[in-house]
From TrEMBL:
PANTHER family: TRANSCRIPTIONAL REGULATOR, MARR, TRANSCRIPTIONAL REPRESSOR OF EMRAB OPERON
Keywords annotated in UniProt: DNA-binding, Transcription, Transcription regulation
UniProt cross-references to Pfam families, sorted A to Z: MarR (PF01047)
Protein's organism: Hydrogenoanaerobacterium saccharovorans
Listed name of the protein: MarR family transcriptional regulator
The keyword DNA-binding is annotated on this UniProt entry: yes
PROSITE patterns: HTH_MARR_1 (PS01117), HTH_MARR_2 (PS50995)
Amino acid sequence: MLENQQLLARKLLERVAEEGLSSGQPKVLEFLLEHDGCMQKEIAHACSVEAASVTSLLNKMERDGLVQRKIPQDNRRVSQVWLTEAGRQKAQMVRDTFTRLEERLFQGFTSRERQSLLDMLQRIQENLKEDGSRE
């Protein structure tokens, strides 16, 4: 499983690097495509990234014109993160890249096999997220 994850990550990063994106940015862009205007801590939680790493990612993405941060009038202690038009285009490119890779991953699988595998992987993920106190 680790080897599969590494191969998938490498294929994805090769494709998005051609578009000037670095590691970590694709996941953030895709999340923002569905959750535009969210808070930074929501990005960190959803993308399983430390808050400091998200800050660093967003600083670079803001410099590159992919996102902008806005402080809401009603709560000046937080900032919301929004995609720019350039960021929205990059996010769509990331989504299209994920889709093409997924199609390649499941080449030769029946829809039933595909769903069965996805269900099993979901169960594995849930097991890994469980409290490890039973170990």
